[in-house]
Amino acid sequence: MKKLEQALKVIGEDALLPRLAEVLATAYRKSAVTSDEIKNIANVDFAEILLLAWDFKLLIPRRAARCGEWDDRILMPAPGEAYEMPNIVRYLIRVALETGEFELERALRSLYRDMGEPQWEKIPELVETMKGYAVHRIISAPRIHAACLKTGIANKTGAMIAILKGGGVISPRLGAMAPVARAGAPLYDMNPLVCL
Q: pLDDT higher for 67 or 177?
């Protein structure tokens, strides 16, 4: 647990980190965690821990209004609510439990190799390039296409977007239609933990 707590210091020096580490370790072991389990661990800091985990997309609510995209999820700190980890966070947690660090490249390679992605070795470079193209962790489809071209993944942008979504690296921005209209292309949020 101490190694995970050490890795979490990348999100800030916070008194909540020991309990957040315990919540994340529980979610990692069980694939999800409920409000009741978080309350048992966090006690009076339940809401703060839940918000911190949500802000960094460490945990996302299972409940959604229409679909599973991040901005369509409904964060309700009510009894019986369940929260899950995006796939990339699960792999980052696994590495952090071993090493005390979030090793993004290692986690990306393992995740996409396990998912059976033929170009899994190029994913860390693709994500690093995307981070450089993103503005406030938001990236457009044309920028993802440019990152694909730059990393040698040609003629596969649509499939790569789906693969990145499946891994929890990105999620479409559905709620803010005005920015999407101004951009003239789909926009995606990058997972905050990936962008650290």
A: 67
